[in-house]
Structures are given as structure tokens and as C-alpha cells.
Inverse folding.
């Protein structure tokens, strides 16, 4: 193996096994309270919260450490309105002509429809982009690897960080999403990955009962 620069691994907390179990279970319970929210207040969110959450996401593992993601934070009411209009146009087409009946049947218990008013009400939209080329340093134009996997992991950390800060989120994936690149002024070699809505739930916000049905451990994991 070739020599390469390295640094010492930072020390991990010296928990005993009981503490590790307790912390893992506490985090499990905390994240179990996360809900996808479609009804938002227009109450502002401090920029420092969003910046810290994005930096958390930016620390995710990635192929060759190329960090193939970009987070465009959409705050202005005018831009949020443009996003809503473009997304609703795609959604109407989806519900009326594109979606097979099986897909529509799967969505029915969640009560989704072409109305995406939350895109204009919520104070923060984060458009997540996946970069085909880049690298860890400014100006890099290297081929990126495991882009979808890397951006997915980073997005998961972003959602967890925002939840930990007491904010609700929603992942929105209109198809196609090319309008996001145009609105956010992103280059052609970046592909919209998803649109993350973030903010405070409205006082009368509800969650579909069907969304609370989560698979038990024996259906999502096995020890082999």
C-alpha cells in the first residue's frame, strides 16, 4: 500500500456498554418522533440552524471523499412561489396522466395531491443537488463516484439534524425536477436530487395515520 498523509482518529467518548445501549435507544426514540409534515407555519427559522444542519450533512461519507452534493437554500417568498408553481405543474401532470393506478392507490392513504401550498408557506426550502463531477477542493472537476449513495446519506443526516433542532421536514420529489436547477442557477452537471421542506408545523398540522405504520425490526434487519 502506498504511503499517504494521515491523522489520528479523534477519541470517541468512553461509554460503557450500558451507556451505549441507553444512548442508542434514546436516539432511536428521538428519531421515532420525526414526522413528515405538509402543513407549515410561516414562522422564520434562524439561518444559523440551517447552516449547522447543512454542515452536518456535509460531513457525510462519500465516494473518494468527493462530497458530491450542493444545498441551495431557498428563502425568498418570490422564489418559493416560483418553485411551488413549477412543482404543482409537474404534479398535476403526474396525477392526471403519468402515475399508474397502483402508484395512486399506494399514495391514497397518505392524502397527497397536486396541491403543494407548503412550498410557499414553509420558510425554508433546501434543493439538494447531486454533482456528476467535482472533488474535495474548489475548482476540482474530477469524476465523482457513488453519487446517489453519497447524496442520500448526506440528506439523511440533514433531516436528522433539522429534526434534532426541533424542525419538521418533508421530502418532495416532483418528476422531472429540472426546474430546480434553473431556478437555483445550478450548472448542467448537477442533477436535482430532492427538495427538502423545513420549518415549524402549523398549529393544526396533522399526520396521516398510515404514515405511522413502520416495519418492526425483524422485517428490516437480520443477523447473518
Amino acid at each position: 500500500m502506498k504511503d499517504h498523509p494521515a491523522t489520528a482518529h479523534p477519541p470517541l467518548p468512553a461509554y460503557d456498554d450500558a451507556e451505549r445501549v441507553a444512548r442508542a435507544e434514546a436516539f432511536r426514540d428521538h428519531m421515532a418522533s420525526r414526522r413528515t409534515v405538509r402543513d407549515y407555519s410561516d414562522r422564520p427559522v434562524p439561518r444559523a440552524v440551517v447552516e449547522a444542519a447543512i454542515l452536518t450533512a456535509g460531513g457525510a461519507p462519500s465516494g473518494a471523499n468527493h462530497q458530491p452534493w450542493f444545498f441551495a437554500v431557498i428563502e425568498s417568498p418570490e422564489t418559493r412561489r416560483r418553485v411551488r408553481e413549477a412543482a404543482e405543474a409537474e404534479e398535476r401532470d403526474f396525477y392526471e396522466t403519468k402515475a399508474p393506478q397502483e402508484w395512486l392507490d399506494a399514495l391514497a392513504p397518505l392524502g397527497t395531491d397536486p396541491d403543494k401550498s407548503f412550498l410557499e408557506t414553509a420558510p425554508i426550502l433546501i434543493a439538494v443537488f447531486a454533482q456528476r463531477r467535482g472533488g474535495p477542493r474548489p475548482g476540482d472537476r474530477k469524476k465523482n463516484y457513488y453519487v446517489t449513495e453519497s447524496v442520500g446519506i448526506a440528506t439523511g443526516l440533514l433531516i436528522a439534524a433539522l429534526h434534532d433542532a426541533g424542525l419538521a421536514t418533508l421530502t418532495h420529489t416532483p418528476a422531472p425536477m429540472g426546474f430546480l436547477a434553473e431556478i437555483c442557477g445550478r450548472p448542467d452537471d448537477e442533477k436535482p436530487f430532492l427538495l427538502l421542506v423545513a420549518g415549524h408545523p402549523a398549529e393544526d398540522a396533522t399526520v396521516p395515520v398510515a404514515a405511522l405504520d413502520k416495519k418492526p425490526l425483524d422485517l428490516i434487519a437480520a443477523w447473518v
